[in-house]
Amino acid sequence: MVGFVSANFDEEAPVDYFRSVLWRINVDADDQGRGVGRFAVQSLVEEARARGLDHVNVIYEAGEGGPEAFFRRVGFTAVGETEYGEVVAEIRF
Question: Hey, what domains does the chain have and what are their CATH numbers?
Fold first, then answer.
């Protein structure tokens, strides 16, 4: 295994950004930069689209060494902030 993605689709979630959300994505350090993470996000987008959704959210902490650069590269755009100061970003399709 070189990586995994954890996500959730819940049309009844009380908070909008939890209705279609990428919770976690991990790729082994030796395999980063080879398209594994991009493939995982694209596969998640395809699953969301098949479920009739038009976007996927991700929530992360901004800062040095964080995942923000990766999420921007694969198409996520910051759209807000959680009550705890985390970034909410989305990819629309």
Answer: 3-92 (3.40.630.30)
